[in-house]
Amino acid sequence: MANENKYRDTAAAILPLVGGARNVASVAHCMTRLRLGLHDRTLVQEEQLKALPSVMGVVEDDTYQIVLGPGTVARVTPEFETLVEEERAAAPEPAAPAGGAAPDAVTADDLAAQGAALRAERKARNATPFKLLLRRIANIFVPLIPALIGCGIIAGLNGLLVNLGWLPGITPALAAMASGFMALIAVFVGYNTAQEFGGTPILGGAVAAIIVYAGVANVEAFGQHLSPGQGGVLGALGAAWLAVQVEKWCRRWVPVSIDVLVTPTITVLVSGLVTLFGLMFLAGEVSTKIGEAANWLLSHGGAGAGLILGGLFLPLVMLGLHQALIPIHTTLIEQQGYTVLLPILAMAGAGQVGAAIAVYFRLHRNTSIRRTIKSALWPGFLGVGEPLIYGVSLPLGRPFITACTGGALGGAFIGFFNQLGTDVGSTAIGPSGWALFPLLDGDHGLGQTVAVYAGGLVVGYLGGFLATYYFGFTKTMLADLNVAPAQSAQDTATAAGPTSVKDEAPAPAGVPAG
Q1: Which pLDDT belongs to residue 39?
Q2: Are 222 and 204 in contact (CB under 8 A)?
Q3: 25 burial type by CB count under 10 A (0-12 exposed, 13-18 middle, 19+ buried)
Q4: Which residues are part of the catalytic machinery?
Q5: How far from each other are the two terminal CA atoms of the chain, in whole angstroms?
Q6: Which of 203, 335, 422, 496 could form a cystine bridge with 500, CB 3.0-4.6 A?
Q7: Mean pLDDT of the chain
């Protein structure tokens, strides 16, 4: 009961700070964030919101996203939804917007707010149709992540027990639990695809189920007998999308009196035939090439490939292009049992942690930024990087770049071992940092796989720390930022020199150019 009250109290504290129930258009959540559709974002009291103990940060995107962390967000969201419904039922008076008094000194909140505003502006300008499509594709796969994580951990536990020869009567049951979801993942992808693109979800699932049905082995296409599961999640995505198009056509042309009989039948029949005699073969070829390309990239590119992937991942996240990797990860897991790309990309988070530690030591007088880092560092070790990115490195500019350097070095370390023949993979997507350890798998035993991944983390931490400590700040930045928040404006101006008149000057906006 105490825990339930805690999550309800968190929801109750958030609701008035986002403008109340009347300002909430939609509520959803992902692994770490409460995602709110808001009618008027000017009603958000962001400084007070970020000051709440359970809030790790905020992100402005197509939705207003409040970072609460894994586990917590899944418990706060239903409480938040309940409070929204209760407040709407009570029909309260709209809350007046809070006054926007500016803080007296440059603090971590000031940096984070300016950095988030700049990022939101860039994202608004770059909301291209291609990126919006990638976001919709991501929406199909993100709801599958909890099942991927749970089944992946069970698979890892089962592998450990099998290797040790323990509990032989239990391991077959664990194998069934771990593999059942992956055997039917195409059905879930089809269901979510139809839901995302405006069709009937169950029809999308029905068409995608054709792909995993054992009887497809009796069907011949392009001179070859099909295999159950051929085409995988990519085939399921394509089949369900086609089903949505067929269904929408039927809704326009089929008379209402027979719609309930004709539309589902034509939808499954047409999209099913196209899936069997076209999509399964084509998607199977694409899936195979994706697996071959990933293996070739790391076996031949090695450290160079890891350097590029680890260094560029966070910029891809900033641009929204990382969502294109989700179906690739899922395809690799479906084919090989693990994705070799995720551990390398996870090094980007290690670089952020190392960079944040360097900022902590370099800005030893700025207690506000140091306090933010101390509170966000442990989530960062566990793979929740938003508080460090949006609260520290991104608004500072240069530390974000040096953090990417740390990620590149960590990625190069793991890529080097991949080139030597030691695959380091993850059986699920979503977790990162230390949280990825239970999901690790590879081709040379768990001990060696864990050792290589841990070595990559250490290299990422050290690389991010050293690059940021020595190259992350200009003299002007240190003069502007390495001051106590309580210091007077006159003292700050003296410390900063003639180029800085007062702390309220928008130094962070000019940092990247420094």
Answers
A1: 87
A2: no
A3: exposed
A4: 30
A5: 52
A6: 496
A7: 83
List, for residues 431-457, the tens digit of each pLDDT value.
889 989 988 988 888 889 999 999 999
- What digits encode the pLDDT tens for the residues 318-334? 766 777 888 889 888 88
Q: How confident is the model at residue 104 (pLDDT cuts 50, 70, 90)?
A: very low
**Between helices 280-296 and 232-253, what is the axis angle to 10°?**
150
Q: Report residue 508 as tokens.
A: 């962070």
Q: Where are the beta strands (DSSP E) in 273-322?
A: none
Q: Is the pLDDT of residue 120 over 70?
A: no
Amino acid letter, 269: L
Q: Cα(404)–Cα(460) distance, rounded to whole angstroms?
A: 9
DSSP per-residue string spanning 191-221: HHHHHHTTS-HHHHHHHHHHHH-GGGGG-EE
Tokens linked to 502: 């007062």
Q: How large is the average pLDDT for residues 213-225?
A: 91
For residue 465, give every residue at least 6 positions away whose Cβ sits within 8 Å of its Cβ, in sequence order, or none: 354, 355, 357, 358, 406
- Name 29's bridge partners: 34
Phi, psi of 12 (to 5 degrees): -65, -30
Q: How many C-beta neighbours within 10 Å does residue 131 have?
A: 16
How far CA 199 is from CA of 196, 276, 281, 339, in Å, comes to 8, 20, 24, 30
Alpha-carbon distance of 281 to 266, in angstroms, equals 22
CA distances from 242 to 235, 238, 266 (A): 11, 6, 12
Contact 122, 50 (CB under 8 A): no
Name residue 460's amino acid: G
What tokens does 11 get?
């929801």
| Of the candidates 428, 431, 437, the residue with the CA atom closest to the CA atom of residue 456 | 437
What is the model's pTM? 0.71
Return the axis-axis angle of helices 347-362 and 398-419, rounded to nearest 10°.
140
Instruction: Report how far residue 436's alpha carbon sits from residue 505's, in angstroms, rounded to the nearest whole number.
Output: 41
pLDDT of residue 391: 79
- Which tens digits make up the pLDDT trace of 257-292? 898 899 999 999 999 999 999 999 999 999 888 888
**Phi, psi values for residue 129, rounded to 5°:** -55, -35
Amino acid found at 325: L
d(CA 291, CA 201): 29
Length of the chain: 514
Q: Strands (DSSP E) along 47-157, which ranges? A: 57-60, 64-67
Q: Are 308 and 345 in contact (CB under 8 A)?
A: no
Instruction: For residue 338, give the nearest of 186, 461, 216, 443 by alpha carbon.
Output: 443
